[in-house]
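Dear H.,

Thanks for agreeing to be a second pair of eyes. The structure we're designing against is below in token form, covering all 402 positions.
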């Protein structure tokens, strides 16, 4: 049975700019927002948009991500025909090939796409925080008679040179594409989310693969080739919340924005567009009589006896009496012992912060530094980790290196 549109989700990114957080973890598997991982957002968008077939292309450090996705049940993607499929690189008769670029990754999975005989294919990124209705995007694509459409957002002109930009006419037809230009002609930034007519995408993937000089990338090769051939290409304007959480500071900012949905535009309490995730199976959280909690996201299994302010606490976090946590993102299973001060930082999973240790500090005017502690690290008693520090090795008692 043919599918009208299937999704191909690029989830193999290394996320090198997240440093310690992705040392043993694919970027789409990075925890976010208390009870989610980044990949929950595109998967939830798919099921909320009526897309029931998703291919997830994995490559870098896939173990946690594969285990988390499982059979797709949390996102209602455990289907007999369709559902979620994890698609790593695999050995072929001609040898084994890693995914060489975004276009090559899709090319290697042409047989998977063909098995569903879709009219349209939507290409998604597994490393963005975004709530988007892909069915509205598809409606736009059909109404325009497009062969290729890209979701775009208007960005401030002074920041436009940081993005891949689409130049479009008054009918939203794309006339030019600029990749991070010094002198931008547009402020329509590509979100890296594309809809193709499948017959067109297949043709250009095969031609691109046959070009020995190609980098096998959508932005560098496929889109310029479509433009060169005068294909019907359109820019779909998206006005909701979208953030590429590719850096420590942007990941921290996106987590903090959850606590202020009225101003930030990201509302995880919206019952009309739920973000689904795998249940941790932990008990309810407990806040003792000694605790002080202000404007926080406290998830299942947490035990709070200290002071926590403007912070995101993932499942199973423990904050002892006398500890202070402020403007922090604390991932699952972390223990913060008595007297510890943890501020303006991201702490990965299963960290222990010892008694009277100090991690991070509130920034002074104009500073943006976010301290980061990698997973499984033990910060010893009285140790100090300053702002902007990146810790991926155990810090002994009293060490003060930042």
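And this is the sequence the design step returned. I haven't edited it by hand at all.
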């Amino acid at each position: 049975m043919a599918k009208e549109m299937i999704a191909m989700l690029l989830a193999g990114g290394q996320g090198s700019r997240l440093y310690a957080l992705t040392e043993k973890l694919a970027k789409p598997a990075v925890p976010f927002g208390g009870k989610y991982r980044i990949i929950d957002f595109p998967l939830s968008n798919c099921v909320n948009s009526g897309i029931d077939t998703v291919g997830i292309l994995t490559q870098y450090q896939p173990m946690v991500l594969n285990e988390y996705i499982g059979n797709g049940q949390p996102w209602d993607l455990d289907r007999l025909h369709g559902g979620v499929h994890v698609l790593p690189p695999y050995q072929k008769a001609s040898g084994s090939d890693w995914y060489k670029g975004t276009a090559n990754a899709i090319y290697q999975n042409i047989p998977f796409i063909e098995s569903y005989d879709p009219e349209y294919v939507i290409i998604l990124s597994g490393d963005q925080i975004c709530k988007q209705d892909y069915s509205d995007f598809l409606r736009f694509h059909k109404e325009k008679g497009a062969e290729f459409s890209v979701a775009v957002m208007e960005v401030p002109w002074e920041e436009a040179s940081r993005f891949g930009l689409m130049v479009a006419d008054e009918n939203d037809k794309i006339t030019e594409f600029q990749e991070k230009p010094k002198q931008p002609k547009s402020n329509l930034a590509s979100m890296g989310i594309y809809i193709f007519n499948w017959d067109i995408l297949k043709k250009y993937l095969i031609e691109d693969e046959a070009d020995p000089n190609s980098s096998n990338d959508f932005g560098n090769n496929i889109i310029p080739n479509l433009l060169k051939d005068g294909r019907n290409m359109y820019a779909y304007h998206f006005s909701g919340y979208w953030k590429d959480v590719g850096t420590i500071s942007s990941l921290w900012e996106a987590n903090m924005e959850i606590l202020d949905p009225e101003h930030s535009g990201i509302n995880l309490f919206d019952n009309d567009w739920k973000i689904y995730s795998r249940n941790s199976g932990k008990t309810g959280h407990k806040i003792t009589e000694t605790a002080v909690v202000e404007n926080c996201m406290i998830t299942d299994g947490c035990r709070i006896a200290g002071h926590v302010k403007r912070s995101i606490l993932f499942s199973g976090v423990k904050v002892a009496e006398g500890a202070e946590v402020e403007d922090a993102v604390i991932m699952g299973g972390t223990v913060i012992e008595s007297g510890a001060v943890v501020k303006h930082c991201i702490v990965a999973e299963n960290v222990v912060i010892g008694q009277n240790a100090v991690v991070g500090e509130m920034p002074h005017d104009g500073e943006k530094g976010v301290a980061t502690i990698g997973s499984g690290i033990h910060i010893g008693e009285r140790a100090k980790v300053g702002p902007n520090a990146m810790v991926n090795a155990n810090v002994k008692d009293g060490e003060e290196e930042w």
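Two observations from my side: Residues 242 and 361 are 28 Å apart (CA to CA). The longest strand covers residues 188-197.

Warmly,
E.
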